[in-house]
C-alpha cells in the first residue's frame, strides 16, 4: 500500500526526456544522417550511438568532425528543428511513462523535466501531454555543463526548492535511459533508476536497473527513497567510465 502523501519520503521525480518519456532517439539519428549526408559525409550507427544522452554542444562537435561545415549553433538548431517537426507529426511515447506521470500527479508528487534537448523540443513534448505534469523544465540551453555533468539535476532540485525549501536530494528519484544521463543523475546524489533503451547499461549498486516503466508505480519509487543513499557522490559517475570533472 502506498504511503499517505504527508508521510511519503518521495517529494519529486526528475525525468529525462529523450528515450525515457519519448522514443525520439530515432528522430535524432535520422536528423544526424540527413545533415552529415547533406555535407557530403557518412554517418554510422556507431557514431550515432556516441551521441545518445549527450549534450547537443558535444554532439554538434562530433558532427563537425564528420564533415558538417556549420557552426555549433547552426547544427543544434538544424537538428532540433528536424526533431520538433517529427514530434509534431507523431509523439512516440515510451511504455509506462504517461501512466506513471499521471499516478505521480494524483499522488501529489512533483515532477521536473531534466533533458539535454533545448526548450523548443521540450515544450513541444510537454504540450502533447494531457496535463501540466512538470513544475520545472531544465533543458540543455539552461545549463552551462551538459550530462554527464550533474549540473542539470542539481539545478532541477534547486528550482524545486524555490517553492519547497525542505525538499532535498534525498527526497528525489531520477529516471534515465542513457550512459551520460545515468552518470549525471548518480553524480548529483539523487537516487537513480536506469531504464536502458537504445544503449545497454550494466548492473551496478549505485543505481537501480528496470527493464521498463510499464507497470511501475509511486510505491516503487518510494521504496528507492526509503532505501537511502548508496555511495552517492561525484565519484560515483566513474562507474560508467564518465568522470564529471
From TrEMBL:
Signal peptide: none annotated. InterPro entries: HAD-like_sf, HAD-SF_hydro_IA, HAD_2, HAD_sf, PGP-like_dom2. PANTHER family: 2-DEOXYGLUCOSE-6-PHOSPHATE PHOSPHATASE 2 (PTHR18901), PSEUDOURIDINE-5'-PHOSPHATASE (PTHR18901:SF38). This is HAD family phosphatase. SUPFAM superfamilies: HAD-like.
Amino acid at each position: 500500500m502506498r504511503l499517505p502523501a504527508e508521510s511519503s519520503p518521495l517529494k519529486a521525480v526528475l525525468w529525462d526526456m529523450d528515450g525515457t518519456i519519448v522514443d525520439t532517439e530515432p528522430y535524432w539519428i535520422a536528423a544526424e544522417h540527413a545533415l552529415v549526408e547533406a555535407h557530403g559525409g557518412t554517418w554510422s550507427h556507431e557514431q550515432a550511438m556516441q551521441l545518445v544522452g549527450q549534450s547537443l554542444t558535444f554532439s554538434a562537435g562530433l558532427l563537425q568532425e564528420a564533415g558538417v561545415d556549420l557552426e555549433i549553433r547552426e547544427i543544434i538548431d538544424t537538428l532540433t528543428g528536424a526533431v520538433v517537426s517529427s514530434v509534431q507529426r507523431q509523439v512516440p511515447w515510451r511504455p509506462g511513462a504517461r501512466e506513471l506521470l499521471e499516478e505521480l500527479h494524483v499522488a501529489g508528487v512533483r515532477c521536473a523535466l531534466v533533458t539535454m534537448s533545448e526548450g523548443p523540443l521540450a515544450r513541444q513534448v510537454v504540450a502533447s501531454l494531457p496535463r501540466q505534469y512538470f513544475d520545472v523544465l531544465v533543458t540543455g540551453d539552461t545549463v552551462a555543463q551538459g550530462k554527464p555533468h550533474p549540473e542539470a539535476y542539481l539545478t532541477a532540485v534547486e528550482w524545486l526548492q524555490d517553492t519547497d525549501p525542505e525538499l532535498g536530494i534525498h527526497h528525489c528519484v531520477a529516471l534515465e535511459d542513457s550512459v551520460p544521463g545515468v552518470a549525471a543523475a548518480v553524480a548529483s546524489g539523487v537516487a537513480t533508476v536506469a531504464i536502458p533503451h537504445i544503449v545497454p547499461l550494466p548492473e551496478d549498486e549505485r543505481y537501480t536497473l528496470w527493464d521498463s516503466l510499464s507497470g511501475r508505480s509511486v510505491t516503487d519509487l518510494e521504496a528507492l527513497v526509503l532505501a537511502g543513499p548508496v555511495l552517492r557522490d561525484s565519484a560515483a559517475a566513474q562507474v560508467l567510465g564518465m568522470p564529471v570533472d
